[in-house]
Every structure is written in C-alpha cells, then in structure tokens.
Amino acid sequence: MDAAAPTGLWLIGARGSVATTAITGLLALRAGVVPATGCVSAQPHFDELRLPAWEDLVVGGHDIVSTPLAERAAQLSEAGVVPPRVLDAVRGRLDTVESELREGYHPATNSGSQTDAARRLADDITDFARRHGLARVVVLNVSSTEPAFPGLPEHGSLEALEAAMAVPGRTVLPPSSLAAYAALRAGCSYVDFTPSTGIRLPALEHLAARQSLPYAGSDGKTGETLVRSALAPLFASRALRVRSWAGTNLLGGGDGLTLADSEHAGSKLASKGRGLATLLGEDVVAPLHIDNVPDLGEQKMAWDNVSFEGFLGARMSLQFTWTGYDSALAAPLVLDLARFTSAAHAAGQTGPLGALGFYFKDPMGTDEHRLAEQAAELAGWAAKL
Amino acid sequence: MDAAAPTGLWLIGARGSVATTAITGLLALRAGVVPATGCVSAQPHFDELRLPAWEDLVVGGHDIVSTPLAERAAQLSEAGVVPPRVLDAVRGRLDTVESELREGYHPATNSGSQTDAARRLADDITDFARRHGLARVVVLNVSSTEPAFPGLPEHGSLEALEAAMAVPGRTVLPPSSLAAYAALRAGCSYVDFTPSTGIRLPALEHLAARQSLPYAGSDGKTGETLVRSALAPLFASRALRVRSWAGTNLLGGGDGLTLADSEHAGSKLASKGRGLATLLGEDVVAPLHIDNVPDLGEQKMAWDNVSFEGFLGARMSLQFTWTGYDSALAAPLVLDLARFTSAAHAAGQTGPLGALGFYFKDPMGTDEHRLAEQAAELAGWAAKL
Amino acid sequence: MDAAAPTGLWLIGARGSVATTAITGLLALRAGVVPATGCVSAQPHFDELRLPAWEDLVVGGHDIVSTPLAERAAQLSEAGVVPPRVLDAVRGRLDTVESELREGYHPATNSGSQTDAARRLADDITDFARRHGLARVVVLNVSSTEPAFPGLPEHGSLEALEAAMAVPGRTVLPPSSLAAYAALRAGCSYVDFTPSTGIRLPALEHLAARQSLPYAGSDGKTGETLVRSALAPLFASRALRVRSWAGTNLLGGGDGLTLADSEHAGSKLASKGRGLATLLGEDVVAPLHIDNVPDLGEQKMAWDNVSFEGFLGARMSLQFTWTGYDSALAAPLVLDLARFTSAAHAAGQTGPLGALGFYFKDPMGTDEHRLAEQAAELAGWAAKL
Amino acid sequence: MDAAAPTGLWLIGARGSVATTAITGLLALRAGVVPATGCVSAQPHFDELRLPAWEDLVVGGHDIVSTPLAERAAQLSEAGVVPPRVLDAVRGRLDTVESELREGYHPATNSGSQTDAARRLADDITDFARRHGLARVVVLNVSSTEPAFPGLPEHGSLEALEAAMAVPGRTVLPPSSLAAYAALRAGCSYVDFTPSTGIRLPALEHLAARQSLPYAGSDGKTGETLVRSALAPLFASRALRVRSWAGTNLLGGGDGLTLADSEHAGSKLASKGRGLATLLGEDVVAPLHIDNVPDLGEQKMAWDNVSFEGFLGARMSLQFTWTGYDSALAAPLVLDLARFTSAAHAAGQTGPLGALGFYFKDPMGTDEHRLAEQAAELAGWAAKL
C-alpha cells in the first residue's frame, strides 16, 4: 500500500468553474506560484500523513460541454477568480490536462442503453489509469446540480438496476448516478460535491460494498451552510433558543441559473435544511431562497437572520452576510477530497467516509453537522490512516 | 462533601443590571414562571451533577449605590429585560434579597486602611454565610469595569501587599482586587465577570493557593467575542487566511458610559483583542471600538467585518451584526458560574478553573478560546466533578 | 367649507393591527400622553392648513372579525407596539370607538346580492355620519391584502357593474372594491392603504368622478419600499448603474401569514416591483421575497442588496437592513391620510390625489416614486389647499 | 465667452489614486472605450449646456511624489480600479499627461518664503495655460488630507497674509491654502475635493472676490456621507425621530493610513458631522470612526446604524453597509467639477458655487445637505448657465 503513488483525480463536470479552478490551482501549486490557502490537507497537522503530493495528482475527467479548459480559465480570470499571473504561470500545462478530458454522458445524446454508456465511461477512466500507471483514481462529481430524479423500484437492488440499465433507451439512473456506477465498476472511489443523487441509491451503495470501495459526499459546504455549521452550535451550547433562521442566497454564474430554477433547487434546499434542524436539535421556521443574480458573476452572497430567545424570554438577533467566490471556496476542498479519499482507499477503508463530513452540507456516514466537531473528527480519522 | 447544600452567591455590584437580572431571574426560576433559557448548567447533560438547585442558592452582595433592588428591577422591566409578569411574580421576594445587601467599598469614601476595609467586607460575607448556614459562598464580581490600575511592586508578594494595605489612606488595590482579597480571606471562591484586575495579581493568586480555593474569570463572554469565538475557528479549520477583523460595539446603559471612556475601556479592549489573536493563530489588523449610544438602553449591538483570503488569493468577506440585551445574556451565566464554582469548591478543586473558560473573554487557567472546544472541555470537566 | 369641522374616519378592517394602533394612538394624542412622532401632518410646516384636529376626528369602521378593540390593543401592547402607559391612558375611550364598529362584508357569509351588501355598508357609514353630525367621512381600507381578483368585463362600466352586482349570489367585486363602491355611494372619499383592488376599476373611478369625490392609494409605503424610494435616486442622480437589487422581507403576525402565501402576495410583490423600475429608469434583476416568520410578532424586517457599477466599470454594493413595527409605521400615516383627504374633499378636489403619492408604494394619479420629490409635492399641494 | 474652448484641469496631488483614476478615465472616455458611468455631467439633461467636451479638457498638475503616472495606473489596475483593457487603451497617452506634471509644494523642502513658493506654483499653471492656449484653468485639490492647521490672525486679511508669506522660513499657510492662493493669483478657479483648509480663509475668499473668480468645495461626498444625505431626509420627511446614528469607516490604501491618524482625521470627521446635524435638524448621538485596514486596498467600506423612534415611541432601526472603490467613486466627480466650474467661470460667476454642494460633504455657499435637493439645485443652476 502506497498512498503517495501517482493518484488519479477524475472530475465529472471537468470544464465547470469549480473543476477549472481546481485544475488551475493544482498546476499553480505544483509550479509553486501560490500558497495552499484554503487547502485543509496542506495544514501542518496533516504533514505526517502519506497523502498524495500535488505532484502525484493526475487529472482527467468527463464533461458534456467542449469549451477548452484554457478558455474557461481565461473566463475565470476575467471574473476575478484566477489572478492573471497565475493564469500566465500555468497556461501551457492546461493543455496537458485538456488531453485527458473525455465526452460526458447526457441522456439526450445517448442512443443505446445505460449499460453501454456506463461501460464507455468506465473504459475512459480505466484507460486513464493505465496510461498513467495510477495506483488508484478518485472520481469526483462537480457537475451542475441535477433536477430531482424520481425514486424507482429498480434502485433498490443491484440486480434489478442492472437489468433495467440494459434496456435500450431506458433512463433508469440520472447522470450523476450513472457516473457513480461507472466509477465503482472501474474500481474507483467516488465523491459527490453536488446534491445530485449520485451514489445515494441502495443498489449503488451495495455495489460499493461489493467492490470494497470508499465513497464520500454530498454537496460541498462552502458558504451559508458552512457559516451556519459554525454558528448554530453557539446557540445550542449557550442554551439559547433559536426561534427562526431565515436565509437568502444570491448566486451569479451558471449556478444561479440552475439553482434558482425550482426543480433543480429542490435537492439543494433540502440538503441545506436537513443540516439546520440537526444542528439546532429541533425544527425551526427557516425560509430559504436561492436567487439568480447574473451580474454577481462568480461571486455568491448569503444573508441570514437568526432570531433567538434568551433569559427571561429576551428577544435578540444575529445577522450575517457572506460574500465569496464559489469556485475559490470549492476548488481547494476538491483537492483535499481527492487526497483524503485516495488515502482512505489505499488504507482499505470502504463504504461512506463519515469523517469527511467536514466538507459536506449533507454528509454521508455521519449525523454530525457541527463544524468544530467535524474538523476534530477529520483530524482524528486522518491521524489513524 | 455535599454540593447541593445551601450555597451562597455574593455579588459585587449587586444592584447593577446584570446582578439585578440574575437575582430576578433566579427568583423567577424558583417560582417556576420561566424556563431556564440561557442557563447552560440546566441543560440535560448536566443533570447528573450535584449542582446546587435554584432553591439552594442564597443571594447577598455589596454595592456602592443604594437604589433598591425592586426599583432596579422595575427599570429593567421598562427597558424590556424583565417581562412585567415576571416582575409581578417575584416582587415580594426581592425584598428578602434586599435585606442581604451591604455597602460596598469605594476608595473615595474609605477613610481608614485597606486592611480595615477588607476586614469589613469579609465580615459581611462571613455573617451572611453564618446566618444562612451556607456550606460555601461564591463571591462574583459584576460591578462596573474599573479604570486600569497601575502595577505595583507590592502586588508581587502577599506579605508586601498586606503590609501596604495596612497603611492608612494608602490605596494599593483597586476595588475589584480588594473584593477578591476579602473573599479569599473569608474562605470563599472568587469569580470575575468583568475585565477589572480582581484576583489577577501574584499576591492574590498565592493567597488563593494557600487557602486552597478555586477561582475563575475573567470578563464574561456575551456578545461580539462570543460570536468571534464561534466564527474564527471556521477560518482556521478551512485554512482561510483572515486579513483583517474590524469591530464596532454600540452600548447603551451605564456600560456604554463607562466603556466608551478610554481609560475604562483599556482593559476591556485588551481582553477582547487577546482572544482574537489566539483564535486566528496570528495577529491581524483588528481595529475595535466601543461607543456609548445611550438610546440603546439595555441593548448592545456589535458589527464585525472579516476580510479574508482564499484559494489563489481570492478576496472574500463575512460581516455579522449581533443585537442583544447585555443583562439577559450575562445573568444566566452568572447563575451557571455560581453553581459550577460551588461544585468545584465542594470537590476540592483549587486555583484557576480553566474549564470555565467557556464563559470568559480572557479565560484564566487555559489558552483555549474556541467556543466549541470550550463547551466540550466544560462538559468533560463537569462530568468528572 | 370648513375642513376643521368634525370629520369621520371609517376604517375597513377596523380591528386589525394597523387600525387598532391608529385608533389607540389617536386617543393617546387627544389625551396628550404622546408626541405626534411619525405624523407627517403634525409637522410645523403644515400648521397653517385647516386640517381636522385630533379632537375633530371621529372613528368608526367595518370588520369581519369581532375581537374587541380593547383586547386587540392589549395584544399590541404585549407585542411591544403600544406602551403599557398609553394603554392605561386610553383604555376607557376604546369602548366608545368599539360602539362605532359594524360587521364587515365577506363573500362567504353574504347570502343576497352584492347590491344589498353594498347598501348595508353604505347605510352603516351614513348612520355614523348622521349620528355625529360629520361634515364628511374618509373611508380607509386597512384590511388584510386580498388574493388577486380576476378582471371581468363588468368592471369596465358602472352600468354593467351595477347590473351584475344585483344578481343574487354573484360575486363581481372583491371585498375591497365593494367597500370602495359603498363609500362612494355614501358620498365619501376613499383611501386604500393595501394593494387590494379597491377603487382601481374603471367603473369605480367613473363613479368617483360622477360623485365628485377624491380618492387615494394604494399600498402604504412603510418599509423596504420606503427606503428604496430614498436610496434609488442616489444611484440615478450620481449616474451609477444599478445591476441588480435583491430583497427579502421577513414578516410576523397575520401579515406574514397572508403575504407569504403566493396568491395573496401577488399584488404586493407587483406593487413593490413597479416602483423600483420607475425609480431606476430601467428594469433591473430584482428578485423579491416575502417570508412568514411568526416569531417576529408585529416586527418586520427587510434586507436588500444593491449591486451597482461605477466609473470604469468598478463593481460596488450597498446593503441595508430595516427593522420596524409594521403597525407603528403605518398608523400615523393612516391619521395623516384621513386629515389630508378630508381637507382635499372639503376643498372640492376630485379624482386620484397624486400629491398623496408620498404615502404609497403604488401611487394613483402620479408616476413619481422618489421620496424627496413626493415630500416636496405633498408640501406644495397642501400649501395650496 | 466660449465654455467649450480648451480648458485646463490642474490637479493638486496629480499622482494620487483619485487623480490617476480621473486622468486614466478621461483618456478612456476620449478613446471611447468606456461609457461615462458615474459622470453626472454626461447625463442627457445636461446635454444642452456648453460644457467642455472630454476632448477639450487638458490635464496637468502638482505633486510632491514622483512615481510615474503609468506606474500608478498599473497599481490601480492591480487593485481592481482600472480594468486591464482600459489600461492597455490609454497607456501611451499617460505619458503626455506625465509631461505636464510639476513638483508640488511641501513645507519641509521649501527653503525660501511662501511668497516665492506661491509664485513658482502660479507660474507652473500659467505656463501650462499658455502652452495649450487654454481659455481657463480649474485648479482642483485631490491631495492627501492635511492635519488641522491652526488659525492665525494673518488669515483675516489679504494684506496681513501676504506680508507674513513674504517672511523667509515662515509657514503661514498649509499646502492646500498655498495652492489655492497660487491658483487665484494665476487667475484660476479653485475646487477643493478634500477637507483641508484650502480656500476657506477670509483672506483667500477676499482674493477670490477681488479676482472675480468662482470656487467650490469642500470634501468630496462619495461614500457614507453620500448615503446619509439620501437617507436622513427619509426620517425627517416622515416625522420619525432619529435617536442615534453611529458610523464606522474602514479604509485601505494611503487614505486609511492618513485618516485613521487622529490629527489628520480631525477635519474629515468634523466635515462628516456637520452635515448630519443639518440633515436631521437636531444634534443626535453620532459616534464616528475611521479605521485603517490596509488589506482593503483601494476599497472602502462603511457601516452605519440608525436608531430611531416612531409612533407611540416604537423603537426601530436601519443599518447599511456601503462597499466601494474610493477612486472610482471620486474620479468622475472630479471631471464633473472641472466641467461645471469651468462653465461657471466662463459665465462670469464668482464666489462660492453653492449649486455644486451636491458633490461635497461640507458644501461652501449653501446649507443644503439633502442629496435630492442638491441634485435639483445643480440641475436648475446648470440650466441657467
């Protein structure tokens, strides 16, 4: 077992803003032109772990769009996410990654069965691993949030699922779940940074178990929920009674467009809501909105109002405003997750990696939503790897 | 050893807003007319501890003003801190506490030596304990923040201190420290909810050790610093680099008047600043103001702007606004501290109670400022009492 | 013509929070126990006008609920809107107003035709005027916002409307419009403080013209839109380009319940939106939400984020948070509108009173939405009365 | 009289951020690569005025530092104020302006009398006007805010002043006033965009009158005070009683460094305070701070809390946060002021131009601080030019 051998990071949605920032940033870290700000795994207390070094991470991926990475990186530079000097430093190397990107799966363009589609996806990953002599590959989903996909009886067992997938023209899995299936079939761990269905189907969890593979997710915690997971424990630990917690999210870019549309937002809003109730120990009134505000570009903004009650019923309040670049917040976590999941795989861990709950709005394998406790759990888990 | 025997709570500044709210609230809790919102020690996970029950706490105290408690409680009701129905429920019993209040020490009215003054203060407490058959008394300072008091060589040893105190007309200790001295001499534990000097002099710490007494402090964490201690770890745990953390505090009431005056604010601002540097692991630009805004009455408000840097140097920000009633935030903590300190005394603990750092801006006996870690430490410590 | 003769104020929704606060406040002003804070018409520069004095205003009204005014006033006192000492000062006089309240119209309980219902409503008002020897009566709608009512061909002409109203069991007008019809038939001016349809139907505007009556509305401007109408001109006058203006409203009380329901909110949101586009001179991205947050009680809160562009395309922003008591903001305006509309009626003005646009989110008779210009227009108009 | 003839704009502090942004922006406007966002004088309703066109403005100036303009522009581009494509478009032309810059006056490096120094400054301007055949020159101060300068008896009359100035080694005028003196002596109008003393001395105002020259100032209104001048009238016009108005300003760049220093901030804070009292019609508690937060770079941020009282004493509040680029806010106003002041000069106006109060925190020649009224006054005045 050698966690530090060349490791693959295969990105689903590899030309998206998060992926492009992660790729650009990884190249910049390798080139030594930026510090590892935002990369938790680069903090001193993880130094003794045998995590893959920046040099050891090889990136490839699937996407359904074909805009060249270099062009996406230039757009992100215009938008203020990638400084010009960083872009200059990595420009040439983006093409190397470009050559590792393959066409993703989209139901509208898939003429055959989902079995065939999954095989193609898995082959892309296997070829990638073989070409680069990779010890293992982490498949990580950073594609756009999908609309909610209906539950089907076939999701309950692997046999039923695979039978249904073999029927030409039938769409029994949403793209994120097909990607997870392909990853597992290719012997890869799977991480979902989105709230899409992904691996969260009994049949797929069963497959992961059978393949002895670890997985993690879901929905990267990078903004409003991140702050909530630091603040909500304050009220609980001080025996203050939260009466309502209202939130508004303003998103620009493609994310705003996708998520302000109610069908896609469904999974996102549900994922945000679950955490709050757990954090506070009870349900509170918690209206929540996601608005599309295109002029914000790559920025996102959240405003929350917490109304709470103290001693003798005194009414008090806390408001916060969070303004950040979504991709700059998410990208270093993508690199962290690649390193930690790879190390977990190398260490023989299987099933949901609850210790990575620190990174997610809707963590699998744990009910812990409190940020400080999650950070401690991550550190403790990593120390034992 | 019986932690649940009648226990005294002796308040320095017993007619102030915090003390009056604590007293009124304690009577209301005993009368069963309010829930214990804001009282950490009343949370289920402390149930197994033998903390003094609300019925077991007997309150007395010193103050240099003489406004009757009932009048102070009525003012706090006007100001929105004490609901009218609570005031109605406890009115009669306030007089019982009133009869336990004694005149406090003020250098301007003290004609003799500080030794004499300390003896009188200690006698007041001893009489109180004897009258009520108290197992022990916690002396707790909630008086107004003092101006900074100069360090003197006599503070370094108990012998030198006592020699200086005996000189008529000499003021070698500020009132808070004289109160701490008297408390220790009377065999009582001492808690400082203010940033005043109090027990924090080598001579007094030495006296506490000799008397085998526990003590705790200092400066109750009830607002801006409370939120900071929940939020700052977010940045540290996510490897985000805080560049500046600016804060503004608007205070009404007597607190605003005292603290906006730069001489008194000195110790408060220093106490707030120490914590932030520790929380972030490095010094950051952190301008901080306390303004007197009388129309806010018992309310206080804080606005903070955190400017931070993420992946690839992306500039982002967090702002928060906290609006609360200072006394409603502080009073339940005063009751908590009385219960926990009494239990620690009963359990034979001595010296600074670092596990109570959860309650303080500038905790003695610990360097931990992170709220979640402090909460965990408190729970662990209490479980072992 | 004597504008200062006894004048009636007939409130539709007379037991609601706004009406109860207006009534309680009027009685308190008469009793001299409060200053006229929030009453624009009581400012010195209106002194020379012959507006009805507080003593000259006689109040009656309709409501479909029957909770006694005194009970409603007590609830508002609990909620922090009416100070206890004000309640004490006016308690007896509330019963005098109570005796002037009559049962309002509700389609669900109306068995006959709308003609019959309107006659009953008009008779109530006429009796009220006769009993008190009133020179004139202002009918003012402060009832809950109605769901949108479909446009009908009959709304286009008075004849067609009255023919349809005569059909038993047919509901051709929503309650607010039936109230406006009854008011006009009783020879009264009509003011709509809500976004409901009210008088805004060609048939009713025609009736007002035929009766030579003035009217005003609609939708009282008391919070987010008030601030917007002061701030938006800043951007316009400085040639700054607003790119988006996002808003979130948190409402407690019955208002939150009514308006967070999308059907009722329709008219409210439309009314808020129209103004912003006019103020900025162009449509901007302006997502807007109204959330029901019951624990806020009578308070309401708005948060807006304005994203704008300056010289050389620099991106900048303004956020504001507004926290107020809805009824305390609205009630003095209700009194102002009664005084000004009565004076306009006395002066022989007819049709929409555009000069009262200062008070409304969606002003009739003017396109001016800028607050400063509206204030100047009001002052100029009043000076000429 | 030909307002549109070539006009000079002579900047004091010509290498500062505001000046550099104004110069860069003017060149970009001439090149047609940016719209005139933020330039009030470019709005359609000023089209009929014969203001100097962008092509007609010739720029020169004094500064005591020597960093080349092109380098300063590059720094401002790094800081996000000047977009890279704008910098590219004007780069060559910056050198043309560079050649028009001369060494400014600093008391520490002036060995002779202030009379000599003033003569040199005036000669620089006269040469500039002659070289370019300028009809007139507007001298405009955008240099760093000076420390308060003590009032001297010599400031009271021109004769006394000039006698004192002639004494070698004596510093009877601060640099801003010496610049104003030189401007007037050179027959130029003078505008002060800073809160420094500038022309505001009886002797200099007398000189302006004798020379029949107009002048304007002082202290450009670009942030917190701008918002206040739009919001404060809301409270006044609605008869709401402001109880306190607290403000915090966070500044980066050189401005933060200069102004957070209490000696320099004196004039700035005084200038901010005067306006608020005038706007509200009474003095209110209004604590105000300016903090130096270097990491903000060219950005500035203000947070204000307005606590106010409404009907029946209801306590309510408004908070706002303003985040902007100081230079991007100020630069277009500098160009406006050059155009309007030149037109006023051409039209034969003399003395303080109160109609330009729209641009200033502490306007000369008017007591009007309300933004909407100032905008109307500017438009009316300009229409009559």
Describe, in short, the structure shown.
Four copies of one chain form a homotetramer. Chain A is an alpha/beta fold and 385 residues long. Chain A has twelve helices and eleven strands.
What distinguishing features does this structure have?
385 residues, 18% strand, Rossmann fold, Dihydrodipicolinate Reductase, domain 2, alpha/beta, homotetramer, 4-stranded mixed beta sheet
Can you characterise this structure?
Four copies of one chain form a homotetramer. In chain A, the strands form two sheets. Chain A has a seven-stranded parallel beta sheet, sandwiched between helices. Chain A has a four-stranded mixed beta sheet with strand order 8-7-9-10. The first copy, chain A, has twelve helices and eleven strands. The first copy, chain A, has two domains: 7-220 and 328-384, 3-Layer(aba) Sandwich (Rossmann fold); 224-325, Dihydrodipicolinate Reductase, domain 2, CATH 3.30.360. The radius of gyration of chain A is 20 Å and the shape is globular. The mean pLDDT of chain A is 94. The longest helix of chain A has 21 residues, at 326-346. Chain A is an alpha/beta fold and 385 residues long. Chains in contact: A-B, A-C, A-D, B-C, B-D, C-D. The interface between B and D is medium-sized, with 21 and 21 residues. Strand 10 of chain C pairs antiparallel with strand 10 of chain D, so a sheet runs across the interface.
**Radius of gyration of chain A, whole Å:** 20 Å
- The total domain count of chain A is 2
User: What is the average of the pLDDT values of chain A?
Assistant: 94
Query: Superfamily at the CATH H level of the largest domain in chain A?
Result: NAD(P)-binding Rossmann-like Domain
SSE-based structural type of chain A: alpha/beta
Low-confidence stretches of chain A: none
**Tally the helices of chain A: what do you get?**
12
Identify the CATH architecture of the largest domain in chain A. 3-Layer(aba) Sandwich
Write the CATH fold name of the largest domain in chain A. Answer: Rossmann fold
% residues in beta strands of chain A: 15-25%
Largest interface: A-B, 54 and 54 residues
Q: Tell me the total number of β-strands of chain A.
A: 11
Give me the side-by-side strand order of the main sheet of chain A.
3-2-1-4-5-6-11
Overall CATH class of the largest domain in chain A: Alpha Beta
Could you estimate the helical fraction of the residues of chain A in percent?
40-55%
Straight-line N-to-C gap of chain A: 12 Å
Q: What form of chain A results from the Cα inertia axes? A: globular
Q: Which oligomeric state applies?
A: homotetramer
